[in-house]
Prior knowledge:
single chain, 7 helices, 61% helix
Amino acid sequence: MFGYRVPAPDEAMLISGGRRGLGGAPFRVVTGHGKFVLPIFRKTRFLTLSMCESEVTETCVTRQGISLHVRAVIAFKVGNDHESIINAGQRFLSDQDQMSVLTGRIFAGHLRAIIGSMTVEEIVTERQKLAAEVLDTSKTEMAKIGLIVDSLQIQSIDDGDTGYIDAMSAPHKAAIQRQAQIAQAQATQASVEAEQVAARNQAEYARQTAVVKAEYSAEVDRAQARAAQAGPLAQAHAQQEVLDAQTELALRQAKLRQQQLVAEIVKPAEAEAERIRVLAAAEAQRMKIQAEAAASYDRVALDRMLIDQLPQIVKEAAGGLAGANVNVLNGADGLGEIAAGLVSQGLTILDSVRQNLNGQDSSDGRRPAESNGSGNGLLQLHSRKDGKADDGPVDVD
């Protein structure tokens, strides 16, 4: 807008013309906002509030009479309050570069005064104290011209060719060099010890590595040996199992063969022996019956006794087989054959007894009884050796 002026953030706008400013100043101060300024009737100027720098290089004489070349840097600016802006505006508004020149001169004078009251040792060792004293002595004077100092840094202190500072620093240099040598020796010793420790650690690590490698190699060898033996061992186990199975099979075959031999040879022999024993017993019984019959001359009693004793004879024959271990190999047919055999043996014994009796009767002159179909002496037996009934009767007197 025409006539409206705004200062920069680091500037102060000074408006002259019209009424006076604060404290009777010939201008009004505006910062941080704009203001409408009548053209022609009002005039505006701008004063910088930014940081400025001034460098001081001065030759100063110490309390000991030794000349020192001192170089310092001052950082300063116009104060932010209206009073400082007015003081600085009245002095530097037309030539603001003069602020750095004037500040350097002010600090050069105070620097010479402060160094003149101190020794070289104090200046060198207490450089911060020197800067603080210079700031304190110049603060009031700088405030009068509207400036404030933010910092003062002593950049360098040099005694030229006198060599005082070098001589002053010689003992310290020697001590420092001695300490440096000691530190170097200690560092070397520590380095050697560290190298020895590292060498021992490396040797220990190498030993452990060798042990681990040896153990690993031994384990690998054992595993390879076990793997190499696994095949023969497995084959041997398999062969042993085959031999065991063959042995067991042979034992079973031998046992079966033994059972077959018992069934084929021993049992028939035992049965034959039992048959002979039964026949012998029957013969003895027959002779006993004949003796009793001869004594009584009673043919009817003889026949009756023979008939009564026949079941006992068959029973004795069956009893002889009862204790025998007979293996029946053909099932029900075998049992039928055994039963038929017992009946056949009984009939055989009966026929034998009858023939013997008939023979004795003939020798005694007796005639056997005729088969007239009547009387107690007639016994009809319808049996054959194969278990089938005969067609005709058999007479027994």
